[in-house]
Amino acid sequence: xxxxxxxxxxxxxxxxxxxxxxxxxxxxxxxxxxxxxxxxxxxxxxxxxxxxxxxxxxxxxxxxxxxxxxxxxxxxxxxxxxxxxxxxxxxxxxxxxxxxxxxxxxxxxxxxxxxxxxxxxxxxxxxxxxxxxxxxxxxxxxxxxxxxxxxxxxxxxxxxxxxxxxxxxxxxxxxxxxxxxxxxxxxxxxxxxxxxxxxxxxxxxxxxxxxxxxxxxxxxxxxxxxxxxxxxxxxxxxxxxxxxxxxxxxxxxxxxxxxxxxxxxxxxxxxxxxxxxxxxxxxxxxxxxxxxxxxxxxxxxxxxxxxxxxxxxxxxxxxxxxxxxxxxxxxxxxxxxxxxxxxxxxxxxxxxxxxxxxxxxxxxxxxxxxxxxxxxxxxxxxxxxxxxxxxxxxxxxxxxxxxxxxxxxxxxxxxxxxxxxxxxxxxxxxxxxxxxxxxxxxxxxxxxxxxxxxxxxxxxxxxxxxxxxxxxxxxxxxxxxxxxxxxxxxxxxxxxxxxxxxxxxxxxxxxxxxxxxxxxxxxxxxxxxxxxxxxxxxxxxxxxxxxxxxxxxxxxxxxxxxxxxxxxxxxxxxxxxxxxxxxxxxxxxxxxxxxxxxxxxxxxxxxxxxxxxxxxxxxxxxxxxxxxxxxxxxxxxx
Length: 638
Description:
The protein is of the alpha/beta class and about 650 residues long. It has 24 helices and 24 strands. It has three domains: about 5-215, 3-Layer(aba) Sandwich (Rossmann fold); about 220-380, TPP-binding domain (Rossmann fold); about 390-600, Rossmann fold (3-Layer(aba) Sandwich), CATH 3.40.50. Strands 6-5-7-8-10-9 form a six-stranded parallel beta sheet, sandwiched between helices. It is globular and about 70 Å long. The mean pLDDT is about 95.
């Protein structure tokens, strides 16, 4: 029901929430104005079908609702949408109470770890408690106010349970703040009891006035900035580390200009990948365990590290063994929480504005010379290594992961987008991908062409994320195509949204590498001296371990509405290349996902040679290497 009286409008709680979402707008990097909430992923149940479901139906042409098959899958697609728009747009995901709500918790964890905004609206039990206990309600004997939605609290940036309609008036501005603030961005959860969703209230009409949200660009503290300039000015071997914050700030051009002006080699983190052209003479490659030996070499030799927009997590720092003793770390980050980590000199501010102001303080200071040239030397060595891997063959003649990445890389254009999340493929993409020329004018987004979800490394993300990314990129990069790369383990874990994407006519290419199980964890297991156990299918319990039970991935993907290219066992790189090119064309023509199935060798990898700390029992052969590497951890603290 909708009625207007004076300065109020009578709406249900659900209608008011939806109307508020429609009024929120966002400004992209290039200044284009778009909806902050471009759509909703929904699976309805008794907890949301009549309240929120009715409200969404009323505005279905203005705020489209997309039907998912699995709550986790659709919410992960929403996370990917946020990344593809550089956090400028936020998809909504709604479910019923109970198992549907709990299914979205993993996606909230992905968004939280990666600092990505997502708006989750799980249904909740009745505030009246009159029909308690209702279907799907989990009762807590000592606290009747608790529901399963309280499980979202540890993975929410902002959590609220709306028990009165008027509570929306105070909580919705906080919702918008968290979803659009570069320091706080992450998942917002509003638990919506089903009786409250349908309850009517006279809402202030002003709360439905159009509001344009622009990403704030806080300037750094002048003293902290001056001290950072002084630290850099004393450096002999400075290194610029470009992280995800550079992407979300739209500061790729400023970061590269900073490196060029001051002659500083630049390396990329996982989240900052594809912001720097691969062939740039100052580009040292991707940093970390799954990165490139070239970037890790520069990090080990650097005396000052300027880390911009990164948390410097363990895969970036090789569990904090990649830096040499005595190195000084300067961080630039919009979030003070991240800036102050690791005893760094913290500069809190927007990446773009801070780099510009820091460069101004440094004036004409430049390192250049042999140190700047060092980046090109070591990266050329790494490139030669990757070239050799792409030309080589696996022991059994199967395709290698490096070859798969090479095929996709060679066929990709500047408008294309590639993503992955778990298993061995992140190392292949991070370490082996070669970014083409970065457009000086990135247009509506930062220009990044990769989504490497390695904050949470969520299996299944890379199978469903292409759906969300394709939805976003068809608006910002209509001539491009999204490609997802993943293994058989991820496919078996979460493949249902392939059908959702086919049903909704959102095309992309999915490359499914069948390596016979969870191969990357088998590598971790056996490389430390443990027996292969419960990771590869051949090492798992059951008579099917003899290979007699095998999934026909091509037939399965075809049954979900996808077109399929099946590269036969023993297929060559050229066979794969032809199949991938056909899949690209078919996806564009049919407006559905196209799946390329190929067999890859389970133990042939691209290695950067860095150490990663894992708990290794003394009984295993890998303990000796652990004991050797462990004393070097945190040695840079001096």
